[in-house]
Each structure stands twice: as C-alpha cells, then as structure tokens.
C-alpha cells in the first residue's frame, strides 16, 4: 500500500472530502465498529483524510489511522476531533505496531491500490498479524464483472464549492488493461474562478472473486461473511462489491 502520488499532493488531498463525503459505505463500517464493546481498539488501514476514523473515535473507541500519504494525513490531523485518533504514516506492507486490534478495516476501495499479488498478500498478512484474539478484518473491492470504469468518463462531471478555491469541477478518464485488471485513472480538476486545471494520475486493480479468495488463503485469513453491497445483500455474480469479513485461519 504505497502512497499514490496524487494523494501525496496537499492540494489534491484538500479536495478529496469535497467529492468523497460520508456515504453508505461509511455507515457500513461505522455500524460494524459499534458492535464492539466501548474502548475496543480499531485500526483504519489506509485512513485517508480520517473522516471515518474520527467519527468512530467520537463514540468511545481507541482508533489508530494509518496511511502512506502525508498529504492525506495532513488533512486528517486538522479535522475536528483528530486528537482522539493516533495517526501514523506507514505503508500497509511494512507497518509494525506494538498493539493488536479488535477491528481492522480498509475502506474507500483502498485494497484496489495494491497492484501486485505480493503487495496485496503483504498487506493482508500485516492486518492478520495485528488482529487481537477474535479480531475481525473487513474490506471491499469492486466486482470487475460490473466494469465500473466504463462510467468514469468526462461527461460525468461533478462540482463542489470549496472555501479556499470556490467552485471546482471534477471528472475522470479511465483506461483498462483487460489482461492485468489494472485501470489507469486520470482525475481532472478545473477551478472555475481562475480557469486553472490539474490532473492527478493513479492506478487501481480489479480482481475476480476466486483471485481474492486465493489471496486470503495465502495470507492465512478465513472469510467469515461475504456481502455484495453496502445493504448487506448476499454476494452474487452480479454484485457491485465484494465485501468480506475475515478472521485468522
């Protein structure tokens, strides 16, 4: 889980929450955390700007947020309530902490930033090694059968009004490699007031369900529950998401 250069940039990081606010996926992980006893230890692996980590910490949980991108952590540390969270800069592959956790989660499709099997297994093993007895790992990845990248096109623009930059428009361009499952993304931002434009480039990987199951086995993790969407609907071939709850095998 190396830092994507787009999230290292402070300006890109500052725009992130304007286009990626609280959503149904955050409700899912928040509700999962609230099944734990008060004071339980929670690790947000790939915490980004810390929106979810801070919300969980508000409810009496001991939360640690880990991310490899300094730009995102800068935003997280400035968030109201950030003092309740322990923030750590680290890649998921190499993270070594002195405590274990009752819940570890990766959200925001952070798992898809792992472009090689060895990196994915390394992160999953790191999570496994940091789980407490009866600890739970939860994360999601998009179902490649749904070809989500086909909807990431310039004609699907979003806009947000920011305090520092006024109105900002966002759109994506995506190019998929069917052999590797890797999608090259270009995120375009236009600052309406000045006409300035920026482009941030990143890559994510789509893998099928059998591939994901093999990675879990390699990391010595056993899936306990699968969901196909954030409403906890059963996983099917046409589900939008592969959402997995796993424990050490």
From TrEMBL:
<dbReference type="InterPro" id="IPR029063">
    <property type="entry name" value="SAM-dependent_MTases_sf"/>
</dbReference>
<dbReference type="GO" id="GO:0032259">
    <property type="term" value="P:methylation"/>
</dbReference>
<dbReference type="GO" id="GO:0008168">
    <property type="term" value="F:methyltransferase activity"/>
</dbReference>
<feature type="domain" description="Methyltransferase">
    <location>
        <begin position="42"/>
        <end position="135"/>
    </location>
</feature>
<protein>
    <submittedName>
        <fullName>Methyltransferase</fullName>
    </submittedName>
</protein>
<dbReference type="Pfam" id="PF13649">
    <property type="entry name" value="Methyltransf_25"/>
</dbReference>
<dbReference type="InterPro" id="IPR041698">
    <property type="entry name" value="Methyltransf_25"/>
</dbReference>
<keyword id="KW-0808">Transferase</keyword>
<keyword id="KW-0949">S-adenosyl-L-methionine</keyword>
<keyword id="KW-0489">Methyltransferase</keyword>
């Amino acid at each position: 889980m190396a830092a994507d250069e787009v999230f290292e940039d402070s300006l890109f990081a500052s725009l992130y929450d304007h286009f990626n606010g609280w959503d149904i996926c955050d409700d899912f992980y928040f509700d999962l955390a609230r099944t734990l006893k008060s004071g339980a230890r929670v690790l947000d692996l790939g915490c980004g700007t810390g929106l979810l980590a801070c919300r969980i910490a508000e409810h009496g949980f001991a939360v640690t947020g880990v991310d490899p991108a300094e730009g995102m952590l800068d935003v997280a540390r400035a968030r109201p309530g950030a003092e309740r969270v322990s923030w750590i800069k680290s890649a998921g592959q190499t993270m070594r902490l002195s405590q274990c956790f009752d819940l570890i989660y990766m959200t925001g499709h952070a798992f898809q930033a792992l472009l090689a099997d060895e990196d994915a297994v390394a992160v999953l093993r790191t999570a496994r090694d940091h789980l407490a007895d009866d600890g739970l790992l939860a994360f999601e990845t998009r179902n490649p059968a749904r070809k989500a990248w086909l909807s990431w096109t310039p004609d699907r623009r979003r806009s947000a009004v920011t305090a520092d930059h006024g109105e900002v428009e966002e759109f994506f361009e995506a190019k998929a490699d069917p052999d590797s499952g890797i999608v090259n993304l270009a995120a375009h931002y236009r600052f309406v007031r000045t006409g300035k434009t920026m482009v941030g480039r990143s890559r994510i990987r789509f893998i099928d369900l059998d591939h994901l199951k093999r990675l879990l086995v390699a990391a010595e993790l056993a899936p306990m529950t699968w969901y196909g969407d954030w409403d906890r609907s059963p996983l099917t071939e046409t589900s939008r998401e592969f959402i997995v709850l796993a424990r050490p095998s």
